[in-house]
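Quick note —
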Amino acid sequence: MDAQLVRLCKLKGFFGKMPRLPRLNLIGVPQHIVQVGHNNLPCFFDDADYHVYLDSLRNAADQYRVDVHAYVLLPNMIQIIATPKVPDGIPSMMQSLGRRYVQYVNHRYHRSGTLWAGRYKSSLIDSDAYLLTCYRYVESRPIYLGLSDSMGEYAWSSFLHHANLNRSNVIKDHRLYMALGDSAAERADAYRELFRYRFDRRLLEYIAETIKLGQILGGDVFKDKIEQISNQRVRPLKRGRPRKGEAESRGAAENRSTAEKSGSTGNGVTVDRSAKKNNTTSMEAGT
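Predicted structure written out below.
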């Protein structure tokens, strides 16, 4: 293939990396959020920086009505699990948080320019199946990266809160964590038990892949529910040419989607898109 044609194909996205799915923000559905430093360079340089980031996170979460359930701050990366209470709560929170913290860093260290490697990545979580597993994934990052020898030694993680070692004013406990016990001590003991065994390698890779590609962390039933609520495809398309039946079904689905976006169902009935959005973009918060 001609080199110029290859470059054009890459620019158009005909091959190469799998394209990311549209980012979804649904009220009451937890998200796993990851943001990495530019060129994997550090974003935190001393303890004061971590404190400023957590204060900014708490303020932004309160302002945009987002419940933060878990987090870890690593030298060159942050990971957060949070549930929005309003539409666009998480995008607004992350935009405000990023702006505040970058301004602080640039002013303090007499630098300019970006601090993060582009926009944050996020993945919706099937809370009943994966939420506490995601807590473990996020809070155990310092161990897997060799930053700490034990969970309780790392100061910049929500594990200290969940293990009842140091309560955090950033965290809003999710109902699934609260269900671990009737008292703070019982919940902490039950939570620590979750960390007795190492992660299955395949599960680690699955969680990492979903956040990398912006896919949903959940089973088919949960994905079906999200597709119905959001009226968007949440599964990546299969590579290669679709079979005749699949192509016809996909074409019909695309026609329905186009008709709905234009306000028509194709049979003379007009759909109130604003009303539909209000009725279908929220799920049980469970917090």
